[in-house]
Amino acid sequence: MDTPKLRRGLDLVLLTADFAGTLLFAMEGALAGIRGAMDLFGILVLAFTTAVGGGIVRDLLIGATPPASIKDWRYGAIAITGGMLAFVFHGTVAQQASSVLITALDAAGLSLFAIAGATKALEFGMHPMMAVLLGTITGCGGGTIRDIFLNTIPGILRTDIYASAALLGAAVMVISVRALRLHPSLAALAGGISCFVLRMLSVWQGWSLPKIGA
Amino acid sequence: MDTPKLRRGLDLVLLTADFAGTLLFAMEGALAGIRGAMDLFGILVLAFTTAVGGGIVRDLLIGATPPASIKDWRYGAIAITGGMLAFVFHGTVAQQASSVLITALDAAGLSLFAIAGATKALEFGMHPMMAVLLGTITGCGGGTIRDIFLNTIPGILRTDIYASAALLGAAVMVISVRALRLHPSLAALAGGISCFVLRMLSVWQGWSLPKIGA
Amino acid sequence: MDTPKLRRGLDLVLLTADFAGTLLFAMEGALAGIRGAMDLFGILVLAFTTAVGGGIVRDLLIGATPPASIKDWRYGAIAITGGMLAFVFHGTVAQQASSVLITALDAAGLSLFAIAGATKALEFGMHPMMAVLLGTITGCGGGTIRDIFLNTIPGILRTDIYASAALLGAAVMVISVRALRLHPSLAALAGGISCFVLRMLSVWQGWSLPKIGA
């Protein structure tokens, strides 16, 4: 089964998914910029940082410089394309932003980024616990920078099961591959599904984490 | 013409211009700190980050660590001098802050930083498109960090042709040197003039980028 | 006196102090998160960034990647433990937060971080002036990131002798070891005491730095 041809096919699927996630996150960032009364430049900055900010922070922290999305111009091009799409078709994009489809796609993107981030951290020799943290940062870092640019408290710190879903997914992946010795692809699948299911369930059920005095 | 003596002279001119830009940006950062009711320490922090923050972010992103303005103590010394000057002579400095002279000097500093940043990014092997982005970050990154410290939405994301002028200048430089094969000095000159002229024209004419719903 | 056994003992004391400082800063960060209506995830993020953020920024700036607190999982574990303690015992922790004991422990942590940060910067070949700056960043950087996450102007930029105490301590240490040629341990002690005393005196006397128009 594990022929070079299959592997090349799998790599292509993963790269396509990574680019698709980047495009979607960029469009969501751009939309937040439009809502925040940014001009075209600001909208494109938010598209770019939302899409690739998490990966850049991860790469700086694990010492993988220059970060992948600075070295490979295609991420930047996709992010700017996403930003332009959201700018031009903002009416349609805004209408769909909280649809079930977009929520599911966003959850898929979050799962992918969290798993990919934790995997890369393990490859760079990070401790499993830190790999989980770095996977979470990969998934949520871009949105956090976007919220700081918009001068609001990062949403993931106050509401929703979003970062926690990324954390769970990364943890399931790291435990599966390191403690349970599962094949990396299976571990990634288990982690990704955990993140996706927790995120979708929590949106559906309106779950949130405990707070004090709330 | 291209004798070592001439080259040394040109390097000296560039270094002087870089230091002068650092001093000016530091004074503008300090002034923003004074307006934001910062204490002396905060004013010096804003002077430092406004002056060298863009270059530091660029150097971290291209993997040129430690960043130039951390390795070379003179940038820090100049930034703190600028901050102290603005603190002591704040009345005079504040009066001049929106004069034509300061607007022109600031546009010159922006041009210089954008061109120098894009050049360094090319030297570190970045893709031309990313070099344009990194030049823009060099020019505007310091002011963006300053605005985040002041708890406001970064000005460049919402108003004015400022970052866009830096982007244009960096793009003209990169295209001139890579596609048109101009001599680097000529390309830098063309880029710098483009940035300067667009910035000054847009201040004069009150131009701004398109927004949605505005 | 300077036997390997003594040195090992000293290293253990320093490591213990470093871990204790990390725990205390994490609890303070978590408390700020509770006050800011963060959920459990946000509280733990604030605990982590307050405790290790300053050291991470220093390590990125001096090119010591991956940063110590990313490479060594124990810092993260301690920070998260501190955050959980503050979450569970928040009533007791909040009551003690402005007591003389906690103020003194916090001042001790600040002193330790500032001295350790400046020492590491010197070891990485930074100029003495930049080492002082990097020591200050190590002491105050975490709290600055915490304040940005909480969407407030970083406290150290506006009020109190806090960053200035870290700056003084780092400066005394650097001058002692470089200009006065004191033994590094003595220099560290002199610097740490300077920071601690200035901080405690300024809390007691209500000192603050000059401002314009205040």
From TrEMBL, chains A, B, C:
Residues covered by the Glycine transporter domain: 16-90, 104-175
Protein localization: Cell membrane
Alphabetized Pfam families for the sequence: Gly_transporter
Protein keywords: Cell membrane, Membrane, Transmembrane, Transmembrane helix
Any one GO CC term of the record: plasma membrane
Chain ranges passing through the membrane: 12-34, 40-61, 73-93, 99-118, 130-149, 161-180, 187-207
Keyword match Cell membrane: yes
Claim: Glycoprotein is one of the keywords in the record: no
Family per similarity comment: Belongs to the UPF0126 family.
UniProt protein name: Trimeric intracellular cation channel family protein
Taxonomic lineage: Bacteria, Pseudomonadati, Acidobacteriota, Terriglobia, Terriglobales
